[in-house]
Amino acid sequence: APDIPVIDQAYSKLSNSITVEWRAVPGATNYMLTAQDGDSFVETIVKNSPGTVTGLKPATLYRITVRSISSGGKSQPSPFRKVKTVLAAPTLSVRSPSCDSIAVSWKAVPMAAGFSVSLMRSDGLGRVLKQNTTNTSLIFTNLDPGTLYTIKAYAWNANGMPGDDFIYNQRTSPNAPVDVKVAFNSGALRAVVSWMPTEGALTYSVTVSSGLLKLRCNTSSASCMVPSLQCSSEYDVSVTAHNDAGSSEPTDAVSLKTIPCAPVNISIEEDEPGHLLVSWSSVSLGHYYVVFVKSDDGLEVHCNTSHTQCHFQSDCGFTYFISVFAYNKAGQSPLGDVLNYTTAPCCPGDFRAVFVSSDTVRVAWAPVRGADAYETRALGGSGVLLCRDTATACTLSALQCSTRYNITVHSFSEARGSSAACAPRCVATAPCSPEIKNISKEGLSVIRVQWQANNEEAMYIVTARGEAGLWHCTSTKNSCSLMDLPCGSAFSVSAIARSAAGQSLPSYSIPLETAPCCPSDLILTQVTQSVTNISWSVGRGAHTYVTTLESPKGQAKCHTLQTYCLLGCITCGTNYTVSLKAISETGLTSSCTYQGYSSSACCPSGVKLYRLSNNGIRVFWRASDETINYNADLHGSKGNFSCTPSSGLSHCDITRIPCGDVYTVLVAPMTNKGPKLTFCPKKIYS
Q1: Which residues contact 233 (CB under 8 A, 6 or more apart)?
Q2: Which domains occur in the chain, in start order?
Q3: Tens of pLDDT along 365-390?
Q4: In 10 A of CB 445, how many CB atoms?
Q5: Which residues form a coiled coil (predicted)?
Q6: For an engineered disulfide with 164, which of 89, 113, 304, 650 has Cβ 3.0 to 4.6 Å away?
Q7: What is the pLDDT of residues 170-208, one digit of tens each?
């Protein structure tokens, strides 16, 4: 076994350990340190000197021995040394009751005669503060706010031996922030509170209070946003700084007045047409008000006032959107209720009344703003006519003729009802239709028409309408005459009344027929000595004709549908008067007279032929009247020959007649004009 070590010294610097120093023993590889307290002991193996025994109790007397160890074994314990461990360190409780002080307290340490506490800034700046005391607490004052300090404390015994140190870092509480500012966001009803950062503050709390209402905001920066503020409210804003040591005093309260609330109880009245009165309730913290009135055409006006009402001009047929804002230094109130007010629609303009018939008028007008429907009212005659429609036109029918109506057009809207009093328009209907009472013939081609006059200040126009054309007559009374109506024509006669108001409907038509026209051409042709053919042109309007030849010796008459007639029993050499009656289908008759007619002279009698020579012939006859001149005609295949006797003679000679032929001999009275007579008896001569 190795030699026994010799302890040079043993001492305690920590309350739980004793350090031992000895001289090295040759051949020893390890050393065993033993600290014994009564029956208990603590052993520690170390490599060399010095060595420390730990796990000991503070302020306790121990017997310390050392044994050397080698491969051969352990030596015997060295002579012991008595060493007492130092006092334990006091356990500190530290706080910062204010921003410039730190309070330190601890529990009593056994066998401690006193305590030493020192304090210094952890950053090494400044001086060290040290206090010795036999108490278990003390306070350091006049410190820097929000600064981290290092505190060291130990206890000492009656011999003045210090015990273990207790080191603690403590920060003083921060000072109250300065330069607090409040920025209010009126649109979002929130405030941003800012301040100058204070030394040592880790966090800040902002308190916004109004009465019992408190809002808080915590932050680690130098500003904080406080949301959900109420309008028309006044708040006290304070800021408190915090760190692990505590809190600062709150800053002096900064007053914050929020924007006013939106005005309520807004009412709109149209005290008179064209004027709107907007009123509302007063708002707390509202210094003045602005009313915005925007019409539906985009035009906007506003009114500034410190009162609770405003006047505006308005136009008919507009919808106005009205909003009221309150203002103070904080800004504009939120948007409240937006009211709309629709004024009564305008009276229709560009009024036009056009008669589409005598008893129907079409009323049209230009559309007006704000009108959903229109009502047309016609007052006059025996009552009131109404017409309601959404269109800008209305047709009033069944109007009384020759009547004045006051027509008024009102516009309506669902929002406001009827338009204001609109000016009427006076319209007069056309005259009433006249009623034809009588049509009479006053003379040749003159027809008098009478009617019942039932209008005032009307001009009556009578029209005869037919295939021959139109004939008119006018009068302001109850009759007029149609002149120069053509014969043989059928007419429809009607009358209208005309005035400044218009023209009536035509009366019921009365048929009118004029007497047929006399034929313009009449030709008489004697067919035989006792038969005459009469022909004539067509007389317009005539259906049948009656022709008459009349002389003192008698009368010949013919009634026919044709335009010619054969009249017999005509006496030769007689002057006749010629008349013709044209008769219409309805029996109207026109008596027509023509130039007189003379029948041809009577044919001679006793015609005899005598041969004068081989180529001559003498013709004899007996004249019916010595004053009549006759002519003898000889007709054959080899030629025609004639002779005329001297006046007063009743024979004549025809010479140079070719022989060997058969001739027809005709002796007839001579005529002044027209063809020769061929109806007298003929003789054959061979």
Answers
A1: 210, 257, 258, 285
A2: 6-84 (2.60.40.10), 92-171 (2.60.40.10), 178-257 (2.60.40.10), 264-343 (2.60.40.10), 352-428 (2.60.40.10), 435-513 (2.60.40.10), 522-599 (2.60.40.10), 605-685 (2.60.40.10)
A3: 999 888 889 999 999 877 888 999 99
A4: 15
A5: none
A6: 89
A7: 999 999 999 999 998 888 888 999 999 998 899 999 999
